[in-house]
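Case study 2.
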Amino acid sequence: MKKRLFAALITLAAVVVFKLWPQADAATEIAPPSTPAPVAAASGAIPEIEPIRADVSSPGTGSFGRDLFRYLEPPPKRVETPPAAVALAAPQPVVVEPPRVEVPPQPQIPAFPYRYIGRFGPDSAPIAVFRGDDALINARAGQVIAGTFVVRAIGMESVSLALASDAAHAEVVRVALTQ
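Prediction:
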């Protein structure tokens, strides 16, 4: 109900504004020409008529030189070239070689003279068993074998060994389980 009342009021307001809007008075109305302009044919001379130029639009047509249906190339942009810079000779770079650092060669691990034949003990502290020429050697992780090798880790199928002289940084050698 309120929407219909609101629409009726808007319509009524539009009709009132349309009727009361000031009409164009007689001074601003354009009157049709009553008599045609006199023709200069009485003297016999034909006046010169300037032809219509396509590149200039007449004022009042509202086109201002634009034709929406014709593509015109934009005028070329003026490219300003910066003044020539004087090139200065750059100093030659000095190449400095870094000092050579001699890296001591890592000690080569000699061949391990024993065979890994098994393990026993609890899983938290296993004991590896090695067989040599005529001896059996039992070793836990961290123990030195034959004064040369240290046991790093003991697994089910292999043992990891390193040189005892450089146990912190030496390569690790794996010795597989043999029968």
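The chain is about 10% helix and 20% strand.
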